[in-house]
Amino acid sequence: MFEQSAYTGNTKENNEAVLTQLTALLKGENNQVANLANASALLHQYLTDVNWTGFYLYNDGEQELTLGPFQGLPACVRIPLKKGVCGTAADERKTIRVNDVHQFPGHIACDAASRSEIVIPLIKGTHLLGVLDIDSPSYHRFTEEDEKFLEKYVATLIEFL
């Protein structure tokens, strides 16, 4: 079903191949947890220089994000909307790319090794489902090209949630 990828580096061809792999992993499965788990595992294996790749799921009743499937060290379990990079991206419903997390007002340090971060909201129709959160131990890790690819990744994933 899945073969470990030999793709390294975010080239257009590699990105398209990973999107194809994502679709193959999710096709025919309707369990949200399983799909998010495979999506985080595939992305964590594909991306270089990252130390955490995962999802926070939106809890409308509590107005917070709750830890979902991920790859990496244990993480914060709950993040209020408007707090940290994840809570801000969820609240504003837009991608946030941070070159130095220590310069982000209200940053929540779940892993002291993280230096940069990108968070992409998961929005289906008009409903916020959560966010994809990726951390790196390097400053300035995430580029505009990464952002575009990850937004396509999330758009593909949303089709299966």
UniProtKB/TrEMBL annotation:
GO cellular component terms attached to this protein's record: cytosol
Domain of life: Bacteria
UniProt name for this protein: GAF domain-containing protein
PANTHER family reported in the protein's UniProt record: FREE METHIONINE-R-SULFOXIDE REDUCTASE, GAF/PUTATIVE CYTOSKELETAL PROTEIN
PROSITE patterns for the chain: UPF0067
Single Gene Ontology MF annotation: L-methionine-(R)-S-oxide reductase activity
Domain GAF residue range list: 31-161
